[in-house]
Structure formats: C-alpha cells, structure tokens
Write a structure and sequence with these properties.
Strand content: 15-25%
Strand order of the largest sheet: 1-5-3-2-4
Helix content: 25-40%
Number of domains: 2
Oligomer: single chain
Order of helices and strands: EHEEHEHEHHEEEH
Low-confidence stretches: 171-177
Structural class: alpha+beta
C-alpha cells in the first residue's frame, strides 16, 4: 500500500491562502490516494493542489506536470476559478482533492524512518557505492517538490535525492522475487 501523507483540501483553506498571498494553485492527478472502488460506487478523480505566492513558481510546477490531463494553474483571485473549486469540493462531485501539505513533517520523517528503514538500507546497498555499517542509522529527510515526495539521504559528504516512489517500488520488487 502506498503512503498517503497529504491533507484533504478544505474550503476553509481558500481564504487563508488568499490572506497569505498564496493565490496560485497548481492541480495535478494524485496517484497516492487511489482507493478501491466498490460495486455501484462512482470512481472519483484524485487531484493534488500545491500552492504558490508567485505565478512564475506555479508555471515551473505546471511545466513539470504538463502531460497530466488535470494539470492547471488556478488563480484564487478569479471568481470563475473559485466557483470551479467549490463545485469540485461539493457533495457528489467527481473529484477528491488533496493539498500538498502534511500535518507534521517531523511525524512523517519518523514514520518513514520506522516503517521504511530496511527498504532504505536495501536501496543504499543496491543503488549506491556507499558502505555503511549495520550499526549506522540511516536518517532520511523529506522534501516536497512539484507534488512529489523526495527522500534526501546523506553519507559523509555525499547526498542523494530519491523519489519516495522508488523506495516503495523497491519494496514491491523485493516481494516479487
């Protein structure tokens, strides 16, 4: 099962974001929240919103996900964009929207350290030339970029940045062998 660390996007976030000057949202398909569908249940489209103060930053993000059919820039100062978001969050909507924020970055790091420790060690062993003793604790840090979770691993003066998805896939491959 995939880790789903992000908060659901709530209507109460909109006025807060506007007040903070974070008027730009970038939407994209969100695969970490894929939920099983039950008979008679209409499938919902999971989206992820990331917020930005500057339009240029939002454009960089949009460019990174431009092949996504749900990639768009939303302007919270435009009435038609607000109306669309409100419709997407309404009861019975085809959409389930998440916000690219975590309740606690420290809790997420602790969870990854606890639940993925062996997978991280296996990744280091198979994908790097680092030689780390068994007593050495691997303590990753978390980074969010363009709606993706990245793991930063440091050893000596070396550092690697890995999509968290790669750690999860390594787990699946290990289970298939």
């Amino acid at each position: 099962m995939m880790l789903q660390p992000f908060e659901e996007f709530r209507p109460s976030y909109i006025p807060r974001l506007r007040k903070l000057g974070r008027r730009w949202l970038v939407s994209q398909t969100y695969h970490r929240a894929d939920q099983p569908q039950y008979e008679g249940q209409k499938p919902r489209i999971n989206l992820l919103f990331s917020d930005y103060m500057e339009l240029g930053e939002a454009r960089l993000h949009l460019n990174a996900v431009k092949k996504d059919r749900y990639a768009a820039i939303v302007d919270l100062e435009k009435a038609e964009h607000l109306a669309k978001i409100n419709a997407m969050m309404s009861e019975g909507s085809d959409y389930h929207i998440f916000f690219a924020v975590v309740r606690s970055a420290k809790e997420l790091e602790n969870l990854i350290n606890r639940e993925y420790r062996e997978k991280l060690k296996a990744y280091i062993e198979h994908q790097t030339n680092w030689r780390i003793s068994h007593q050495t604790a691997v303590k990753p840090t978390i980074q969010l970029s363009f709606g993706e979770i990245f793991i930063i691993l440091k050893h000596g003066n070396q550092q690697i940045r890995i999509k968290f998805e790669e750690i999860e896939k390594a787990e699946e491959r290990k289970g298939e062998e």
